[in-house]
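pasting for the record
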Amino acid sequence: MHPPISTVDAIVVLAYLAVTVALGLWIGRGNKSVDDFLLGNRDLPWWALLGSIVATETSTATFLSVPGLSFVEGGDFRFLQLSFGYIIGRGLVVLILLPGYFRGEFMTAYQLLHQRFGRGTQRFASAMFLVARNLGDGLRLYLTAIAVREAVGLPLPACIAVTGVVTLIYTLFGGMRSVVWNDCLQLVIYILAAIATLWTLTGALPGGSEQLWNFALEHDKLRVVRWDWNLADTYTIWAGVIGGAFLSLGTHGTDQIIVQRFLSARNIRDAGKALFLSGFVVLAQFALFLTIGVALACFYEQFPSGTELKGDTAYAAFIVLHLPIGLVGLTLAGVLSAAMSTLSSSLNSSAAAVVGDFGSWFGTTAMSREQQLTLSRVFTVGFGMIQIGVAIAAESFSRSVVNDALAIAGFTAGILFGVFLLGLLPIRVGPGGAIAGMTCGLATLLLVKFGPVYAPSIFSTAIAWPWYPVIGSVTTVAVGALLSALFPGRTEMSHGAA
């Protein structure tokens, strides 16, 4: 464990945490209804939503791990191939899915499924989102706490509790407005921290930026595209463009955490602008993180650390051991920013999913606006406690179990896009067929992920994770359509079925 950070750095971090809470409390003073709390009264500017989208999809794992992809021996810029797919996928969401969300006063993505397949499919999809999102973000909180523990020396449960509670407070009182404006602040903080790190790294090299450029060329670090066709290779142009597009179609077209931002926009044009342009911002952001990884590799070649540094730990080690006082605090605030933006969005979108998709269970239609707002806040607290509990429980798991659970949490992207696609295609598919398709999609992905690990004699070929959304989508659509064609009487039900 590294020694605790300096007093100055601790003050910087505490000041950042205080500002986020104060901003949430100040912005949230105008929340009068559930629409205010969960959707910002549908009046948020497109550029703020763009910043919120980017910050939401940037977790601590992104902040600390992406530099490791170019830092390691043989590492380069091939991760950017996924960004090409992200841009394509977002464009397709704007063209295919976005219009449907603005044909009615929806609170969640899954209310659109109610129109096509009935309430059962809506709730099945929403439940899948809730389980995956809170499991995945609880584990992201755990990974964030590990980085905080290394920096400040506090016990892991304390790091989890502080990060989780601060995020919960400003989300609870500020609602969607607080989430979006804090996301914008957090985006600025972690980008400034990344730029400051790159500036420090370059300045520490005897040859400056020229030495960094020559190092990148000599070690082939600037390679972006790999044309090989290999399903087991994560970083090929095919996995990046095809897998990245399907992943973005799922995460940005059907996942409540992003769709909630569309629904908070003033109109469909603003929503589309925020979503599509966010892809280019993410591309630039990834390029910045990968450049930091190359700079770290060049720095440690010039000044060996004396210990073996892995890709995921190289940036964290440099932050604690080599950044000057003040910048350590700023960069640690950047780490927290990346985590808190995702967690706050998760809490707010989870509350929206329960109220919007399961509201009849709690009698929301008979409630006043104030009562609905109170219920939304109660669920926000509940999901905050769940995520803190998942993070604390994760300490007893091995790292491999955590990574497997995070991979499972990402399965929903392809499956949810598949069921939305079933609703858009000019074929007759009923609610039973849609639910069966999602179930088979999940079962197939479990086999693809864990089959090569636990039954290698049967599943001899591993498949890289960018293909998971493709497999999930195709399986969901194929099974749903086939079963509806073969057994129309058993898969067709009333669209209004509860």
